[in-house]
Amino acid sequence: MVLAMESLNRLLHCWILLISLLLVVNGQFPTTLEGPFKPVTVPVNYSIIGPVTSLPVNDNPPLSPEIEFQPQQISLSLSSDLSSVWVSWITGEYQIGDDIEPLDPQSVASVVQYGVYKSGRNNLAAGSSFIYSQQYPNEDPNNYTSGIIHRVLVTGLDPDTMYEYQCGDPSIPAMSEVHYFRTMPSPPKDYPSRVAVVGGLGLTYNTSTTISHMAANHPDLALLVGDLSFADLYCTNGTLCDFQNCSFPQSPLQETYQPRWDHWGR
Ligand SMILES: *[C@@H]1O[C@H](CO)[C@@H](O)[C@H](O)[C@H]1NC(C)=O
Ligand SMILES: *[C@@H]1O[C@H](CO)[C@@H](O)[C@H](O)[C@H]1NC(C)=O
Ligand SMILES: *[C@@H]1O[C@H](CO)[C@@H](O)[C@H](O)[C@H]1NC(C)=O
Ligand SMILES: *[C@@H]1O[C@H](CO)[C@@H](O)[C@H](O)[C@H]1NC(C)=O
Ligand SMILES: *[C@@H]1O[C@H](CO)[C@@H](O)[C@H](O)[C@H]1NC(C)=O
Predict the structure, then answer these.
(1) Where does 72-263 sit in CATH, by number?
(2) pTM: predicted TM-score of the whole model, two decimal places
(3) Gene3D superfamilies of this UniProt entry (predicted)?
């Protein structure tokens, strides 16, 4: 309960943020370069915040890719070095249940083909892959093993430059669509002027709306400050369980329902 309330509070903060982002666009606020300014806080408009319902993942199976082992859940993240970017994705399906055989992470390559926008994807970076398994107490048949998680560090990038890329395994071939990203500008001369901060997104009927609002404001950088799927609020059979009030003292393991992670972006 405490956690649920906390996540509601986080959601409210998230709305405050989104509303202020919208204002930035509509009100033509000056950029931070013209600052410093006093922070502006927009009060929550409770009439646009209703009850938030988690997406029941068991009734909504994720869409399978057209080609087996085509990348899903592709994500980009900043590296410690501004000239490099991490590209991560998943291939294959997670498995949950009794007597499951994990996928072989070496069976699908981790390759990013990339180049400066509109000048061809002639560069190649390779990375690594792994799986993880979650073993539950023996009487619980719902052991879990993930799809293959791929991670590639793309290095040697120029600052403030648009790149295009595809990721996947070119030998299958099972490559993603072409996607794009812009690298961060190099300090101290310049820095990202529009930064979105979002947290406690959850996997709800409203999550896509929140992300669309954020994307519609074209942030240069999005900081995801945590609490995404709330998988730890679920029992291994996928039902919402109130673990947080310690009413399962005899449970040897903190249960979680990993498929809530696997439904992201699918
Ligand atoms: C709150 O949201 C509702 C619905 O969008 C809108 O009609 C109302 O004007 C808003 N109130 C304020 C104070 O912005
Ligand atoms: C779950 O995994 C554990 C550890 O590998 C194994 O001992 C157990 O038999 C598995 N349970 C099921 C139901 O597959
Ligand atoms: C959240 O999602 C529900 C279910 O789709 C919808 O009825 C509601 O209007 C949404 N809330 C907001 C604030 O968009
Ligand atoms: C799911 O598991 C929890 C914890 O073991 C149990 O209390 C609940 O009844 C189960 N729900 C279903 C639908 O099996
Ligand atoms: C804790 O969980 C139990 C069992 O679900 C429930 O009866 C009780 O009301 C909960 N306590 C609090 C403080 O939420």
Answers:
(1) 2.60.40.380
(2) 0.79
(3) 3.60.21.10, Purple acid phosphatase-like, N-terminal
